[in-house]
Design goal:
This protein is an all-alpha fold. The chain has helices at 2-21, 28-48, 55-77, 107-128. It has one domain: Bromodomain-like, CATH 1.20.1550.
Length: 130
């Protein structure tokens, strides 16, 4: 549970670093991903004190929806989804590459990795805590 909290906290702080320190304005899909990541910090924190397995009931749906949005954003980012299906009409484009590390790691990829790690850890926690 602590590791899930740590991943959610790092993802939250990372997104705030990108937007507030690096001044990368988040697109609409980035905001949706944040909507599903930020509450996980508090859900996991509440689930640790006292340790409560029911936290999975609250966290897993948020993580799956956030993961789906992240995958959609990544596919849009990489051109697998046509521009006409882009939800970002006004403001910052969801398709614009704003940050690329090692030539392939993008902001949507970071989000996919965080949500995937949280989902995997939740399944491991569920399996080992029975």
């Amino acid at each position: 549970m602590f590791t899930c909290w740590l991943v959610a906290m790092l993802a939250t702080l990372g997104s705030l670093f990108f937007s507030e320190v690096m001044e990368i304005v988040p697109c609409e899909l980035c905001w949706y991903q944040r909507i599903f990541m930020y509450p996980l910090v508090f859900i996991f924190l509440a689930g640790m004190f006292p340790l409560d397995q029911r936290v999975i009931i609250y966290a897993l749906p948020l993580a799956f929806i956030g993961w789906g949005i992240s995958v959609y954003h990544w596919a849009l980012y990489n051109g697998y989804i046509p521009d006409k299906l882009q939800p970002c009409g006004e403001g910052v484009s969801c398709k614009e590459v704003k940050l690329e590390i090692l030539g392939f790691i993008t902001i949507p990829m970071f989000s996919i990795m965080a949500f995937t790690l949280i989902i995997g850890l939740l399944f491991i926690y569920k399996r080992t805590s029975k």
